[in-house]
Design brief:
outward rectifier potassium channel activity; mainly alpha; 316 residues; potassium channel; glycoprotein; potassium; membrane
């Protein structure tokens, strides 16, 4: 099997295990938190009925009722009639929570109620966050060649000098990311979410893909949302692809800074250094390894400076 096929197979394994890990987290969170949510929902309903049955309501009773209602609302349990039938810990919602946990987006609209759920969240994130970063890095390494290296080479062959070529490529990639990851999804969100304006949707996309996750706008949170489970899965796919493209944009900017000498000026590490220093290799290879010359000693290491790289274009 060729090296490129092995790298694609490894990447597919990473993505498959990532999906399995999200499903595992969803099953555990749902089994732990749904009974606690049902109990809180029943307590809140009893509190509402007791409050309505009072003939005379004092200020202290009202304050107690409001404080308990607001505390329940922080955990996604509402006293409103149209919100009482929707669970925040069904399989799709639990998977959505697990996804926001490991991607560090963390909207905060749903939080664990039980101590067991909080403890599992810690253990789940300790493994899930670095593994998610590993999967994103592996995906970016695979798309660097077709989306970064090849276009820059094409611009140079069309007559542009190396430095202008990297600037033109970065601006084109930035425009594509803005259109495909911000404006187009914002149009979809503003159409699906009745209370969101287009600006609200752009704001949500930016807050999400920057992993800020303020939680003031959360998709699929409206009561009676049609196809809610499918909608949440689609948002999870959007978050993964969007985070991958943001990481690709940052890597491209770093490489452009290498070519223009900015990393040297500010005494920052070069983007290629993480791939060639200390005999390290990419997580997922992009090209087959060329055969070793027969007249070269097997123990002699290759000179990294003699290998072609993105940064070598600044010498042209």
């Amino acid at each position: 099997m060729h090296s490129a096929s092995k790298s694609w197979l490894l990447l597919s394994g990473f993505v498959l295990f990532y999906i399995i890990y999200l499903l595992f987290g969803a099953l555990v969170f749902s089994s732990i938190e749904r009974p606690a949510e049902d109990e809180l929902r029943r307590d809140t309903q009893r509190l509402k009925e007791a409050f309505l049955n009072q003939s005379c309501v004092s200020a202290a009773t009202l304050e107690l009722f409001l404080s308990r209602v607001l505390a329940a609302n922080k955990h996604g349990v509402s006293v409103l009639k149209n919100s009482s039938s929707r669970s925040n810990w069904d399989l799709a919602s639990s998977m959505f929570f697990a996804n926001t946990l490991v991607t560090t987006v963390g909207y905060g609209h749903t939080t664990p109620l039980s101590d067991a759920g909080k403890a599992f969240s810690i253990a789940y994130a300790l493994i899930g966050v670095p593994f998610t970063m590993l999967v994103l890095t592996a995906c970016v390494q695979r798309i660097m060649q077709p989306l970064v290296l090849a276009p820059v080479g094409l611009l140079q062959r069309s007559g542009l000098k190396p430095r202008p070529a990297t600037v033109v490529h970065f601006l084109l990639l930035l425009l594509a990311v803005v259109l495909c990851c911000f404006l187009a999804p914002a149009a979809v969100f503003s159409a699906l979410e009745a209370s969101w304006t287009f600006l609200d949707s752009v704001y949500f996309c930016f807050i999400s893909l920057c992993t800020i996750g303020l939680g003031d706008f959360v998709p699929a949170a409206r009561p009676g949302q049609p196809y809610r489970a499918l909608y949440q899965v689609a948002v999870m796919v959007y978050l993964f692809i969007g985070l991958m493209m943001m990481y690709l944009l940052l890597r491209t900017f770093h490489k452009m800074a290498d070519v223009h000498g900015l990393t040297t000026f500010f005494q920052l590490p070069r983007c290629e250094a993480s791939l060639i220093d200390d005999d390290t290799e990419p997580i997922v290879g992009t090209d087959p390894t060329p055969p070793r010359p027969k007249d070269r000693p097997a123990t002699k290491p290759l000179d990294p400076g003699s290998q072609p790289s993105y940064n070598s274009i600044n010498k042209g």
